């Protein structure tokens, strides 16, 4: 069920009141989407989100109906019209018929940000044996979301950690997964996961501080021997994991992770300063 949390949402160029957003439109036809976090009135890492949207368009063969500059203007108009400066905006390109241009939707979507205690102690996660179809494409799939959301609700977990049919860890339900062993940061290879924007920014943060990162397959058994586990995503940014099923990790006290979190915050701050509207 799609919900607009603010008073107005956009359909192409036109604003509509919150209650008129059809809750099931995203499940009709095919929908490409991005969720962008807004902080201090700035859509974070907009350029990277658009690059991924273009990649999804190429992978699915669905042509985008608007250019990046038009999308940016619409997002700033949506932020201004709703008089808010923080939240998550969902962009959806809904292709109802194969030969018809997509309809553009943008609206503030429910966001669930971790608490300060979550960052200080880490969060609980649950293992789910499922694979994302066409993992590099960000396409809405209701059945996939239902399986993951059900597992999280049953176990009161913040996130699901996905394991493929060969027993390798791939990603989170709405996040990417990183691990730390000794002085190395490890993460599953990019061809097997949705290449999250904050995953990219963590790579930049690690490069900035001289922290080595290795992208390779990681079995579930190997993950359970790691010193620390963390996830990255639009809402959590960089978030320590304290528990995977019944297995516990002291991730929040890992110094390498603390260094990464600090540099990531610097990247966010610098982006906001350089992209504030005039």
List the helices and strands in order: EEEEHHEEHEHEEEEHEEHEEEH
**Average predicted local confidence, pLDDT:** 94
**Would you count the extended β strands for me?**
16
Q: Give unreliable regions as ranges.
A: none
Please, how many helices? Answer: 7
Overall radius of gyration: 19 Å
**What number of structural domains do the residues give?**
2
Give the strand content: 25-35%
- The CATH architecture classification of the largest domain is Alpha-Beta Barrel
Overall description:
The protein is α+β, with helices and mostly antiparallel strands and 278 residues long. The protein folds into two domains: 8-109, D-amino Acid Aminotransferase, Chain A, domain 1 (2-Layer Sandwich), CATH 3.30.470; 116-269, D-amino Acid Aminotransferase, subunit A, domain 2 (D-amino Acid Aminotransferase, Chain A, domain 2), CATH 3.20.10. Helix content is 31%, strand content 30%. It has helices at residues 46-60, 68-82, 116-121, 142-155, 197-208, 220-223, 255-275; strands at residues 8-11, 14-17, 30-39, 42-43, 87-95, 103-109, 123-129, 159-163, 168-172, 176-181, 184-187, 213-215, 218-219, 228-233, 237-244, 247-248. Strands 7, 8, 9, 10, 11, 12, 13, 14, 15 and 16 form a ten-stranded mixed sheet that branches. Strands 2-1-6-5-3-4 form a six-stranded antiparallel sheet. It is globular, with a radius of gyration of 19 Å. It starts with 7 loop residues before the first strand and ends with a helix. The mean pLDDT is 94.
Secondary structure blueprint with pairings:
Elements: E1 8-11, E2 14-17, E3 30-39, E4 42-43, H1 46-60, H2 68-82, E5 87-95, E6 103-109, H3 116-121, E7 123-129, H4 142-155, E8 159-163, E9 168-172, E10 176-181, E11 184-187, H5 197-208, E12 213-215, E13 218-219, H6 220-223, E14 228-233, E15 237-244, E16 247-248, H7 255-275
Parallel strand pairs: 7-8, 7-15, 11-12
Antiparallel strand pairs: 1-2, 1-6, 3-4, 3-5, 5-6, 8-9, 9-13, 10-11, 10-14, 14-15, 15-16
Helix pairs in contact: 5-7
